[in-house]
Design goal:
alpha+beta; three-stranded antiparallel beta sheet; 6 helices; 3 strands; 57% helix; 15% strand
Length: 143
């Protein structure tokens, strides 16, 4: 598919909409995780500026030192899963599959590598898991 702003081949509008929604949902949750870290940081050991500068995967220690200590491991585990899924999306490359443009990554297997196609279903699952995390963070926050 082509748009009037580029001559490059692009995935379908629906795929790009899901991709954009997936990234926005994750980014919102990343900020929400940081908000919850700061609200539950009894020792004032973290600052918003420092946390915002961290890659998402490096938030695991602050999460464990604050949110997990006041609840359980559910938020930490779900956020870690989402970071891995998001990394697959961000570090992907574009392919043509079934005559459609989409994203894929490489997965190591025993005797080499294989492509992992980022399907609409994968993006929808990612968005749904972000919704679950958002609900968990709202519940943790208490309002």
């Amino acid at each position: 598919m082509y748009e009037n702003y580029t001559r490059q081949a692009l995935p379908s509008k629906k795929y790009r909409e899901l991709l954009g929604s997936a990234l926005c949902a994750f980014n919102a949750n990343n900020a929400f995780v940081i908000e919850n870290i700061l609200r539950s940081d009894d020792n004032s050991q973290y600052s918003w500026y420092d946390l915002m500068d961290l890659e998402s995967g490096r938030l695991s220690t602050p999460i464990k030192n604050t949110i997990t200590q006041k609840s359980d491991t559910k938020i930490a585990n779900l956020f870690e899963e989402l970071v891995d899924m998001r990394n697959r999306i961000i570090h992907s490359f574009q392919i043509t599959s079934d005559n459609e443009q989409m994203l894929a990554t490489k997965t190591r297997v025993k005797d080499g590598n294989q492509q992992f196609i980022i399907t609409e279903s994968y993006l929808l699952d990612f968005i749904k898991k972000n919704e679950e995390l958002s609900c968990d963070l709202h519940h943790f926050r208490g309002f």
